[in-house]
Amino acid sequence: MDKKEENNLLSKLVSFTKRRGFIFQSSEIYGGFSSCYDFGPLGVELKNNIKKEWWNEMTRLHDNVVGLDASILMNPKVWEASGHLTAGFADELVECKKCNHRFRKDLLEKNKCPDCQGELMESRKFNLMMKTFVGPVEDDAAVAYLRAETCQGIYVNFKNVLQSMRMKIPFGIAQIGKSFRNEITPKDFIFRIREFEQMEMQWFCDPKDADKFFEYWLKERMNWYIKLGIKKENLRAKETKKEELAHYAKRAVDIEYKFPFGWKEIEGVHNRGDWDLSNHSKHSRQDLSYTDEAGKKIIPYVIETSAGVERTLFTLLCNGEVQGGRTSTTESSKEVETFLDIDKKLAPVKIAVLPLVKNKEEITNKSKEVYDMLKIHFNCQYDESGSIGRRYRRQDEIGTPYCITVDFETLDNKDVTLRYRDTMKQERIKISDLLSFLNDKFI
Ligand code: ATP
After folding, report:
1. To test the ligand 1 pocket, which listed residue (127, 311, 318) has its Cβ within 8 A of the most ligand atoms?
2. Can you give the pLDDT at residue 271?
């Protein structure tokens, strides 16, 4: 795909997500705020569904994985121990001598400015941690940091979880939460932003089992994306070369998706060795070792799976947007339909209830009755404005898997039309059977 096509696709996605209430620019009425985005009514539903799927997958479907919700602000000593405050965890920043644009050195393909081909200045270290002050006085003693990754909250709670839940290794701790990074070159819409959410799981195991568990988790995580309906051919696992590994990492594989702008990481699977627990032991002077069945003390190795909520959402939107796939059959117009091909578990709206006409009270009343019955169980939308064909198309575009139409026949036969997003097939269902019918569809 060339640059122009790439930009076209991206700007189409940006305008679609704004128009249909998925994603807005942060503080838009004030001209926006660099690399921060707000998630609208449909965006927040989609995000919540992604998080729910991840949470259930990791904590319910895997034995020995428990949850945690650590605070964003932590004792700054955490970040000293983790190495985030030292230069080793900073990115290399380069600036163009001609246009003064700034870039992250490791993301450049050539040693030239990608915007104007100008020469670049010497690189310098740039720390990604965002600083703030806690308490009424803004002095050095009050400095705190917005976390740059959620996993440190897990490491510092290792002992608490181990003891309170009487865990035995191997076990995992899963967490979803906000992270903040002062990215040098945030770009590609929501791909690289400064405030985002991570879904991370840290698996603590005996060092001798670490390689085996790395393979296991990598496979599990790849399968999760496939289960969500991401096309296999657009997914790959990319091994990080030894010389490019972070200094603490024993092995790292990026799970990548083929975005319109190329293959990019959506999740990292890392073997972090005993780096984190050893360092927190040293800095906190607390014993974070584990005593195994034979009474031997070990510092467990950590296998980390680290995914981004927004990158998963972006992936799903790129994966599911089908353009010009079919022509409407419901109307005489030859309008080309767009539908969001997204797993029904993830669809922001599950069911739309549509009265055939809005000027016949018996029909609108019956529709509202059906809507009230279903909304307790599913995220539903009631829509009576515009022609029925147009309303179907609006729902298809946001990925609503089922539309229910209440029409004149409903009043006599107590049944409704159920229309499927994917096939546009329609069938009549008795209102009394509707709930159990739909429940079965979402199991
Ligand atoms: P990159 O090389 O793209 O900066 P990274 O290797 O620094 O990513 P990790 O620290 O491994 O990323 O973070 C794990 C996951 O968190 C990423 O795979 C991604 O899904 C998400 N993530 C990291 N940084 C950002 C960001 N700035 N915006 C959105 N999501 C992010």
Report:
1. 311
2. 98
